[in-house]
Every structure is written in C-alpha cells, then in structure tokens.
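Chapter review: from sequence to fold.
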Amino acid sequence: MNLELSEEQSAVRRLARDFVDREVVPYAAAWDRAEEVDRGIVKKLGDLGFLGLTVDEEYGGSGGDHLAYCLVTEELGRGDSSVRGIVSVSLGLVAKTIAAWGGEEQKRAWLPGLTSGELVGSFGLTEPGTGSDAGSLTTRAVREGDSYVISGSKTFITNGTWADVVLVFARSTDAPGHRGVSAFLVPADTPGLTRRAIHGKLGLRGQATAELAFQDVRVPASAMLGPEGKGFSVALSALAKGRMSVAAGCVGLARAALEAAVAYAGEREQFGRTIAHHQLVQELISDIAVDVDAARLLTWRVADLIDRGQSFAVESSKAKLFASEAAVRAANNALQVFGGYGFIDEYPAGKLLRDARVMTLYEGTSQIQKLLIGRDLTGVSAF
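The token string follows.
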C-alpha cells in the first residue's frame, strides 16, 4: 500500500491549509462567541473548489478523488468544525447525493449552485422524536395530483437557516418502517416551510443549526430524489460517505488539539522548566499523536475503498467511531495540558472539547456505529 500523496493531492492540502490559516483560524473564537460563522465563507469555499470536490465538472464540480476531499475536510476541522460542517453537509450529504441519485434535470438545477457556493444545502432527516431510529420518522408527503404535500418537522439541521434547498425525508406510502420513506428536494423558500435557529449549543456554536417546520409544503412530483419508497436507501448511502467526512474533520480537530498542546507545553514553565520536560505531560501529548495517526489511516482507508469502487459502509462506521471518540480524548488531553487556562476561551482547548463532543452523536452515535459493525461481523440483519 502506497500512502504517499500525489502531487495534485499535496497541492490541494497546501491550498486548504493556507485557506484555513488565513480565513478560518483568526476568526474561529469570535464566531464561537457570536454563535455565527460569517456567511461570506461559503462563497470563498466555493471559489476554491472545495464545495465541488468529487462532483463531475460537467455539473460545475471540481472533480478530484475522495482522499483529496478528506484532506480538505481535515484542514477545515483543524480550523473550525463549524466551517467543516458547512462542506460536509452541503457537499457531502446533499450535492453528492444529488449526483448519485438525481435525474439529469435535478443535477443541472442544483449542482452548479451548490458546488460554486451560490447555494447551500441542508439534510432534513432527524426529527424531534426520531434520531437514531430514523425509520420511524413521522413527516408525511401526501400525493395530490402532480404534487406532494409535505407536513412535519425536523430538528438539529445543519445549515438549516442558511439553506437554499433541503433534502427532506418523508413518509410517502403506507409501507411500514423505512420502506415507506421517500426523499425530496425542497427549495427553502417554498410556502409553508419555516425555520428557527437553535442557539445555546454546547459546541459547534458558529454552525447554522435549525428546526424546520413543514406545514402543507407543496412540491412537484419531480422533486422526489430517487424512486418512491427508497428514501431510506438514499439517506443511508449519504450517511455512509458522510461518516467519512466527519471522521476526517475529527482528525483535523485532534490535530488542532495536538498542535495547541505542544505549543503551550513548550512555553509554560513550572518547577523551573517548561512543562514539556515533564514525562506525564509528554504522555498526554503522545496519546493525542497516536490517536491522530490511527484515525487518519482509518479515514484514508474509506476514501481508498470509495475511489476503487468497493464496499465501504462498515469501514466508514469504524472510522467515524474511532475518530470521533479520539477527538474527544485528544481535546480532553489538551485541556489537561493547559490546566486551568484550558477553561478560559482565550485558549483553544475548551472550544475543541465542546466541538469534539458532538462528533460522537451526529450522523450516527457511537452506539449506532457499534451496532452496524457488530451486525456486519455476526451476520445479524439490521431490520
């Protein structure tokens, strides 16, 4: 196995690193305090091609492979997980899903805007009463002539208040469980769709997270993405790749924790010398470093499998499980290195820990990942 990056991949990583250092890192703390990322960042991401990675150039994408996508996502995660989430959802969960499941008209209607940053997408799966049990969602889509009328609510929707299009999952048939779910592309300005920002979050404070309410939202039948009743398959395919994106972002977050801890340990003096000389501090730092490398290798394996056209869903669950838990450990260790200063938001450790904690929850909790992995190993059916 050759783990050396190609010249193109190295160039993409340098571009992403420079962008993050210039456009993200200097503002991340302020965005966190204000609970709002500057929306101008979206167009900047689009201008550099970061919102079009792996999407065909025919539809406005910038091409590239999934490893390049992971490299960019890692750098964004290093800078601010709230910014990483914009790309992971608008590109990773929405644009890529349209590219995979959409008809020609849907691709040409939505992909150029999403990949350029002119438009933002959000992924409407989670509901107030259905998180991990997505097959029990209650949002309805009722057929009326050449239209569907959607009613229900969604919550914890990333990009929710910014989105121009929402990929909504709703029950459109009477088939039980996940078999009755279909996917729809709903323009955010459709009458009957209202949005409310969610504030006061523990982490990812800068991210535009929202509750969405659908009250008799009428869309044409052509808004359905994929076949009727196959919405759950659409969602699972999106989430399988989305977990790779979360894992890559967690690698970046853990890297940020490592870099911050190393820098602080080299400056802070106790007992007549910098704390970097103390073996127990070295242990905290070395544990972070090992987690970074292990999480990155698991994530790169997923990208390699996707690019070679092989099955990857279980490997994606493994990467997401390990990387998200590793990010929490890394941030916690970094906070320990900072000591009391880690509790002050002048320093990065506290924000890193708050942002890391949600990674074990969304796009499938750590417990759900273990179930998926366990079912694959034992051959037990998921349904």
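Two observations follow directly from the output. The two ends are 36 Å apart (CA to CA). Residues 7-120 form a domain with the Butyryl-Coa Dehydrogenase, subunit A; domain 1 fold (CATH 1.10.540.10).
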